[in-house]
Structures are given as C-alpha cells and as structure tokens.
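BUG: 3D viewer hangs when loading the predicted structure for this chain

Environment: internal workstation, default settings.
Expected: structure renders.
Actual: progress bar stalls at 90%.

Input used:
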Amino acid sequence: AFVLGEPPEFVHLHPEACVSENLFALYTTLLDRRASGEPIAYIRGFQEFMGHNFLVDRRVLVPRPETEHVVDTAVRLLTETSEASPFVGDICCGSGAIGLSIAKALPSSRVVLSDVSRGAVGLARENAKRLGLSGRAAFLVGDLVTPLLKAGFAGKFDVVTANPPYIPTGEIETLSPTVREYEPRLALDGGESGLEVIRRISTEVPAVLKPGGH
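Structure tokens produced before the viewer hung:
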C-alpha cells in the first residue's frame, strides 16, 4: 500500500490492480531493507501515533502504541484540572509524538519540547509544522530539565511528560537487531539499572511544575 500510494485497505479491495515494473522493483528493494532488520517506520519515513503520522528516522526512537497511554493520561489530568490554557513540557521528546499529540488533543494548550539530541529536536520541529502546531510549540535542546530552567520555566508547567531511556546498559546487546542496530542508543540506554534517567527526572521535574502539577 505504501509503494502504491494507497491506503492499506486498497490491496484487499482491489486484488485486480496492476503493479508497474518500477513499483515492483521499489517494493522488492524495500522488502530487502526490512529483511535486513530496518524498522518499517524508518523505511516509510513515518509512524502512526494517536491518529497522526509522525516523521521518524534514525535520529529518534520509533513511537510505540503503549506510549499513547502517556498522552491519554496527560489529557485526562489536564481536562480534570480545567485549566483554560494548559502549559505542557515534554522532555526526552524525540519525534515530538507525546507533546504534539497533547497539543492536538487540547487546542488551547501550549507545549515546550526538549531533548538532549539536537537532531531529535529538529525532527520534532518538522512534525510540529506538519501538524499545524508551530504557533503553540516551542523547542529547546538540552539535558532533561536544565533547558527548561534556563529558559525561565521554573514552576510554570501543569504537566511534564517524558518517555526516557529505560533499558539497562547490559541488556542493549540482547535487544532485537531491529532495535539495537537502528534506533538511537541515546534513546534506549537507561544506565546500569535502566532507571538512572527516570530517577533524575523524578528528582528534577518538580522544579518546573506548578503547585499541584503532574
């Protein structure tokens, strides 16, 4: 369906459709890339998340379906607090899937996305533009909460989200080649215990939350 430029159901509804030699050659080339272990999302250049297509490449982790629970939880918390214009921080933002999905779900919200990877922040900025969110999204490069504090956001956020690296260093080599050989180690390696970044987040994030923030 991707090669044909059609929705996935097209190949089931139109088994009679002809495929040109050029398209078949492209199809087999993409199959070879997948057979080598390259993630489908990198081959296509995007990943579906919360009903939107996010550009992804080897600069960022491929967004997983499980991570949609983070968005759902943040939206629920912000809706329950009835903030007129909620302010959201998304650290370790990667492609921007979490923060930008919250912004799409809550049209009155504003988001600040940050990542230690300049490449990831650049891609998140591209996704914001594609989703029509450039006017409500700001971007910072830096380590966890540090860039938010430097930008003057101490005590400002209603919610701060994160999908940090959490794989113990010693387990990286045991991961599927699709993950180990292609996705950025920076987004995977959570230190010896796998919890090092998470512990830092739990310690540092309160400094940028409003009283009662999440």
